[in-house]
Design brief:
heterotetramer, A: alpha/beta, 5-stranded parallel β-sheet, two-stranded antiparallel sheet, 18 helices, 7 strands, globular, B: alpha/beta, 5-stranded mixed β-sheet, 14 strands, binds thiamine diphosphate, binds magnesium ion, oxidoreductase (chains B, C), Transketolase_C (chains B, C), Transketolase-like_Pyr-bd (chains B, C), oxidoreductase activity (chains B, C), Alpha-ketoacid dehydrogenase subunit beta (chains B, C)
Chain lengths: ~425, ~325, ~325, ~425
């Protein structure tokens, strides 16, 4: 299998070295040391092995970076031309959402933007595997999943523009609000899944009824207590939840090695449910694995951990400067694994798309871009007094009094001041 | 319906049972709430009668308990979470102040979190560290949360049902020291006052003493003792800490001109500071003396052998009353 | 030594560097503090110069950061922990209030926790949710912690070194809005005032305005504006929130008879309630008006487009000053 | 190997059933279901297998419940008669400390007591494996480890009596104060170990210098975010710490199945360091495994998770009533695995002790009991004003003022009142 990272092992590894004696682990955790300290559990070699450095032997892939369709003994699927063109379209439009939003931030229309560049396949593969009744708990970067769930991308811009904390109705599309406190949503997803169990909407065999939950989070989030507690609750109650981790190799400036010294998907095994690593730049593999995991959940077989192995091609957010902490050739090597290019190569090579299709899609993307540009600038600013709304479902006299007091205060300014 | 004499523990247990009977969406979750019925037996018998799906024994992780309860609330359930002791709510503090408190606001009302977080609070039970804390101010300072404290068996029965019925998240504080103490007469056919109201529990003319939870009993005892010295003390049970129901307090202080507030929490930045500030803002010209605060000292909770010195008691309340009257 | 003009970010960076040079036991730990130098660049260059053993990039887990820092402190180190944003301190709240705050007390002084927890706090930077919080009251209410807030580059330089030198745990609040704003003249050869002292930063006779962190600038601007209307405002930078240094405050209020306190934190149970209560207790007969509080409203922090309406500003401070004078 | 639990699987299992459809995991996670949902990671059978129900195939044992010395390919050690008698003496005295304290609680001399009955071997095995420079972070139940570290057991009683929060000097014996907030100490231990790394006291090869840390916690604690974050930090920095979990099957009324559906020691594998399950009622095996784990840490090979598989024979604490939630025959079956009895049988059978030794030990235990009874009653109550001491290393004027104010207030009562 083609290793997913070409940068030599030591480069990334340096980033989590320590000068301490007895550090790092790897040198001492050789076969030899197993002999000197026998018996400490299975898999030491695998545990400390080099599999961290590429996708590893367990990486599930159906479409190579070169656009070559490969097969997998367990997760293979037959994809129709329609499906493949759909994935391609989804990814192209998702990337367009991202580039437009990034541009809008550069032009001062957004305060900040969390780019997904390079993670289109992971998000579309996961998003398209969902059924309408499945519920999504995203981070702040799941723009592609939101798109799959039918959320108008324009609604995603509000919180980055600072006009709201989330403009879409979570229950309309079964797509929850973005969560900024890292990892918190993993527990919400698990609890929601426990609710599904109590509704008897698991394992009935009715495809319209059986539901699952997917919790999105990043590699960095895997270190939060909340995420690990979510694993414990999900395993303990066998909740129908899929933990979908986009391992984009970075948590702002912290490399994945700071969070885990073994392949992240193996974390799940310690909690008693399956974990699997899929090529997150391969939309086919991500789709196949995620829908199998969701199906396991719907059937009542409990939680699954899916590690989508990918790379954050852009900055953490538009305010971040990655040149301070990572190597550009690392990024260059990942360019060769682009999730969209490989599908386009495959489609063209197999004559599944023609120039017309590409041209129409480009036009559609331009449309979308226009929609976002114009729509964003037209997003209404909140009014000062709006800040007092929705603090409670049953508003208190205290809030009412503060609103009235502030309204009266604003009155004391000339008319324009009232709406600042 | 005939009345019966019940303890606070019994009142809460009956109230929880009633809420679960009335609404199948009500769930209970926490450590040891099932077979054991909770370490204080407040959920005694509920798992047997409502099953393990509705009375959920949890892994040992408070953030996990509150975090998953949020998810269940988003799915349409009304979780009642039990925190085993006040000192163990802190692992869940992030989920409570960043998620439970903010989800309704964040979503413009589209997310509702009708959750109750029950916390046995306060000291006086001779326990080891972390079992006698009074964390109310840390929640009352957080917009989006509502915070109430019951002080007697009858309020326990009604307030827990009202809290569960509320569409807002409620931090529900229970004075553990009184769980199995005094009994009171419960008439289940009565109609309770609204949840977010304070109540004058003793009329008086000289000084207003404000209390909630465990210190209501202290305040009543102090008022009784003072009456023998000819001092007439009005006692108000605040009951709700966020929102505060200051109306009856202002009315009272305008009459007495003097106020003392007592709670077990540390005085520094405790509820007393907020109540004192509001009284001073509203009743400035009626005040004969500054509002005085009698609470736990600003030290960590001490070894239990001296906890009664740390906690406000009748003498310290009366000492404050005297100082107020001497002003 | 010659002086230089520096920003708050620079002052803190220089102070941290000085502390690390002076004491090899000083460590820095947090998310992105190493190569990146922190998202605000406060630790810029320190890992390069002091190595990865002393400037420690951590996994993404605040409880883990504070919890392991406790262990390093018990081993004799002086960890300086960076919390990336105010809103992300809550996962560590349990370790801070139950362990950091109580270990010295629990052990009768045998455990020392000379830890500094740096928190960029406050709003005004147009950020998304959880990036503009003011959690100071939640720490100041906890005995065993000391809490300070710097308001300018020079204080930043000195106070961070003093906090690190303190044998008690210090919550160190930095007004992030001012990191890269105004510059000030630093004379490294000067001798700073003690850490736990408040400071009169502008003399006045009519009203005392109390502020800390980001609102000191607001208060000074208000005083300047008021002076053109002939109002003489005294401004005090509280600097230390726990313990409070009330001496200069009482002295001032006894002269002016009027006090206004302003902070970005919610008014309800914010620092203002405690300060108001103490002033009223101590200066009852000197007060011409109740202590007025100008702070963030009791709502969650709103969308950034209206944050300036949420935050106290010059106009709202002067409005309170006028109301105080009209009393 | 002799299974450690005789009670049939279903009994314990019932305790964590849920009526939900799709619950519980095990039925659906059969080989057959692997075939229907292929590829979800290795070890499904092991993961969901029955090994939870007895010590499991991986249980390390050197002395059977019947007192028969068995051998282990990796963890075997030669124990001198001296050592064996020492272990026996340690466990007998530790049990005596526990029974005396329990009696003192019954007589109202202690407010509460956390019994260790049944866990003597786990604690002595772990405690005796320590070197003086190793540091211990206990829970509230490590009375046997405290004894090994030279802490006067009388000092342990203070916090249960309510006269202090911990009376011993942690630095005198390298034995930390008891921690009541579940799991918090696991992070302190990891941080302390990071301090040891920075002191260069790891992997030097100098047996006097190289140090390790041991963090004690229970099976319930394994669900706390803090404990899992400790695993992450320890793995990330390769800290010299041993996570020693006494799996006594219960967290008050919650059975181990509520916390983990696979053997707990496997949790470590998901974090990238070894985990091992040892018979916690076998002092020889616990000693052998723990000292090997500590040695790994001292040599700079990083963290190890040791699950000491044992049973809480008594109530959670003296205020608990286990009859409400567990089966007495469960307890009965564990009586047959008593950690002390098996060593006595072995010593006698091999003529390593005589009646004189037993008699002397009994006398020594009586001495200890007397010391605790008299000492406990003589423990001085704190004075009211003591509550103001040690709030800070550098006392504040506020605390000083509150002490003086309260002192003046107490003065107003008759003399006796001052000291209540
Ligand atoms: C509890 C918490 N701590 C810190 C932060 C600041 N922060 C925002 S994103 C981020 C990195 C997240 O990395 P990862 O989980 O890998 O997700 P990614 O951004 O790579 O998609 C951090 C530290 C936060 N939002 N929440
Ligand atoms: C954070 C926290 N939550 C709850 C408790 C209450 N509590 C004390 S002991 C205990 C059970 C601990 O079980 P385990 O970790 O298995 O240790 P064991 O008591 O069996 O030795 C609980 C829930 C606590 N002390 N701390
Ligand atoms: Mg990432
Ligand atoms: Mg246990």
């Amino acid at each position: 299998m083609v290793p997913l990272i070409c940068v030599p092992r030591h480069k990334r590894w340096e980033q989590c070295q320590h000068g301490d004696r007895g550090d790092p682990a790897r040198p001492s955790a050789t076969k030899e040391s197993r002999l000197t300290n026998p018996g400490f559990g299975p898999d030491l070699v695998e545990v400390f092995g080099p599999s961290q450095q590429d996708g590893g032997p367990d990486l599930i892939q159906l479409l190579t970076p070169e656009g070559e369709r490969v097969h997998h003994p367990e997760f293979d699927l037959d994809f129709s031309a329609e499906q493949l063109r759909g994935f391609y379209r989804d990814m192209v439009l998702t990337r367009r959402i991202d580039t437009e939003a990034t541009a809008l931030q550069r032009h001062g229309e957004l305060g900040i933007w969390a780019q997904l560049l390079g993670q289109e396949a992971a998000q579309i593969g996961a998003g398209r595997a969902l059924r309408p009744q499945d519920f999504v708990f995203p981070t702040y970067r799941e723009h592609g999943v939101a798109y799959c769930k039918g959320v108008d991308p324009l609604n995603l811009l509000g919180l980055f523009r600072g006009v709201d904390h989330g403009a879409w109705d979570p229950n309309e599309n079964n797509f929850g609000l973005y969560t900024i406190v890292i990892g918190a949503q993993a527990l919400h997803a698990t609890g929601y899944a426990m609710g599904i169990q109590r509704d008897g909407a698991v394992g009935t065999g009715d495809p319209e009824r059986d539901a699952a939950v997917i919790a999105h989070f990043g590699d960095g989030a895997s270190s939060q207590g909340d995420v690990n507690e979510a694993f414990i609750f999900a395993a303990s109650y066998n909740a129908p939840v899929v933990f979908f981790c986009q391992n984009n190799q970075w948590a702002i400036s912290e490399p994945i090695e700071r969070q885990s010294r073994i392949p992240l998907y193996q974390r799940a095994l310690g909690f008693g449910f399956p974990g699997v690593r899929v090529d997150g730049n391969d939309v086919l593999a991500t789709y196949a694995v995620t829908q199998a995991a969701l199906q396991r959940a719907r059937e009542g077989q409990g939680p699954t951990f899916v590690e989508a192995y990918t790379y954050r091609m852009g900055a953490h957010t538009t305010t971040d400067d990655p040149t301070r902490y990572r190597l550009s050739d690392d990024v260059e090597s990942w360019k060769l694994k682009d999730p969209i290019a490989r599908v386009e190569v495959y489609l063209r090579r197999n004559g599944l798309v023609d120039d017309q299709f590409i041209a129409d899609l480009k036009a559609e993307a331009d449309e979308l871009g226009h929609h976002l540009r114009e729509g964003c600038k037209a997003l209404p600013d909140p009014k000062p007094l709006d800040m007092f709304d929705h603090v409670y479902a049953e508003e208190t006299d205290e809030i009412r009094a503060q609103r009235e007091g502030f309204a009266a205060y604003l009155e004391t300014f000339d008319e324009t001041a009232g709406s600042h | 319906m005939s009345t019966q004499k019940i303890t606070l523990a019994k009142g809460l247990n009956m109230g929880l049972r009633k809420a679960m009977e009335d609404d199948p969406k009500v769930l209970i979750m926490g450590e040891d709430v099932g077979k054991l019925g909770g370490v204080f037996r407040i959920t005694d018998g509920l798992q047997k009668d409502f099953g393990e799906d509705r009375v959920i024994d949890s892994p040992l992780a408070e953030s996990g308990i509150v975090g998953t309860a949020i998810g269940m609330a988003l799915r349409g359930y009304r979780p009642v979470v039990e925190i085993q002791f006040d000192g163990f709510v802190y692992p869940a503090y992030d989920q409570i102040v960043c998620q439970v408190a903010k989800m309704h606001y964040r979503s413009k009302g589209r997310y509702k979190i009708p959750m109750v977080i029950r916390i046995p609070f306060g000291g006086g039970i001779g326990a080891v560290e972390h079992h006698s804390e009074s964390p109310e101010a840390q929640f009352a300072h957080t917009p989006g949360l509502k915070v109430v404290a019951c002080s007697n068996p009858v309020d326990g029965y009604w307030m827990i049902q009202q809290a569960i019925a509320s569409d807002d998240p409620v931090i529900f504080l229970e004075p553990k020291r009184q769980y199995h103490a005094d009994k009171a007469e419960l008439d289940e056919s009565a109609t309770p006052e609204p949840l977010f109201t304070s109540r004058v529990v003793r009329r008086g003319t000289d000084v207003t003493v404000l209390a909630y939870g465990p210190t209501v009993k202290t305040a009543m005892a102090a008022a009784e003792a003072a009456s023998t010295d000819g001092q007439s003390i009005e006692v108000i049970d605040l009951r709700t800490l966020s929102p505060l129901d200051m109306g009856p307090v202002f009315e009272s202080v305008r009459r007495t001109g003097r106020a003392v507030i007592t709670h077990e929490a540390h005085v520094n930045l405790g509820m007393g500071s907020e109540v004192a500030a509001r009284i001073t803002e509203e009743c400035f010209y009626s005040l004969e003396a500054p509002v005085l605060r009698v609470g736990g000292f600003d030290t960590p909770y001490p070894a239990s052998r001296i906890e009664e010195d740390f906690l406000p008691d009748l003498d310290r309340v009366l000492d404050a009353v005297d100082r107020s009257l001497e002003f």
